[in-house]
Amino acid sequence: MSQRVAIVSGGIGGLGTEICRHLAGSGHVVIAADLATRSERLAAFRAETADLAAQIEFAALDIADFDSCAELIRSTEQRHGSVDVLVNAAGITRDTTLRKMSQDQWHSVLTVNLDGVFNLCRNAIDGMCARGYGRIVNISSVNGQTGQFGQTNYAAAKAGMHGFTMSLAREVARKGVTVNSVSPGYCETAMVMQIAAEIREQIVAGIPVGRLGRPSEIARVVDFLAAADSGFITGANIPVNGGYFMDF
Ligand code: CAA
User: Fold this and answer.
1) Cα(199) to centroid(ligand 1), Å
2) Is residue 171 part of a domain?
3) 160 lines ligand 1 (CB under 6 A)
């Protein structure tokens, strides 16, 4: 069988980069899709994935733009034959209390973090169903499960993502397509490093494992869900948070 093809949105970001590395390591052709404007980050990404350059390519994508998502899916199917795995890892924060939040801060987070999932899934789903195979993994957040001070926008998007995941999982289960979410806790990424040190230290103190997560600890779960033999897991949310939030 030819190599499976994976698209990772937010592919050059903190979690995205490691997800690309893991998927390439398990034999996928990987398209890291991200804003072309992140030129410094792109150079760093190319250096961090140099050993896997033959399997990972970069594609410019504005996840907020439906047509840009349609074009990415179309061109990938044309060049590589299919989109077998879709990882929605693009995400932004605009943290502030609701009392100070502007409409723009609300809309930008909802547009990237939630509309972006619709934009890519809507364009990828017909091909996956027609081919009878697909793995969709949505990167949500522990804060979508618990809420977080200063994150009404982000937590709403991340919780919404899981409602989307469960609904789509039901719709496409009989077509060989699984849809799951992974809810990372606080990890060693630029996004988490933006939090004021004092607040971050308080958060880390509340993590039973006693440290931030490593992006590779998220990526290996994504790779697991993306595997062909994970076909009986669908509509699930896998928490990877160092024990920060436990439920069942
Ligand atoms: N808990 C309780 N009270 C808090 C607080 C907190 N975390 N942060 C601030 N306050 C208090 C302030 O002391 C202040 O009190 P007073 O009015 O009595 O002075 C009041 O709440 C308002 O505070 P600010 O004016 O500072 O509020 P703000 O609108 O500027 O925003 C904040 C504060 C920057 C959002 C800050 O609360 C914060 O950094 N929160 C954590 C956000 C966070 O965890 N983001 C995660 C980013 S990483 C990520 O999202 C990845 C992932 O999935 C895990």
Assistant:
1) 8
2) yes
3) no
Query: Which tens digits make up the pLDDT trace of 31-84?
Result: 999 999 989 999 999 999 999 999 999 999 999 999 999 999 999 999 999 999
Answer yes or no: is pLDDT of 100 > 80: yes
Asked if residue 213 is part of any domain, the answer here is yes
pLDDT digits (tens, 9 = 90+) for 104-124: 999 999 999 999 999 999 999
Q: Could you tell me the distance, in angstroms and rounded to a whole number, from the CA of residue 150 to the centre of ligand 1?
A: 5
Q: Which CATH number characterizes residue 218's domain?
A: 3.40.50.720
Q: Is residue 247 part of a domain?
A: no
The number of distinct structural domains making up the chain is: 1
Tokens of 10: 């937010």
Best residue for ligand 1 mutational test, from 95, 188, 218 (most atoms within 8 Å of Cβ): 95
193 lines ligand 1 (CB under 6 A): no
Residue 91 lies in a domain: yes
Whether 133 sits among the annotated catalytic residues: the reply is no
Tens digit of each residue's pLDDT (9 = 90 or more) over 146-175: 999 999 999 999 999 999 999 999 999 999
Dist CA 206 CA 114 (whole Å): 28
The residue range of the domain holding 119 is: 5-236
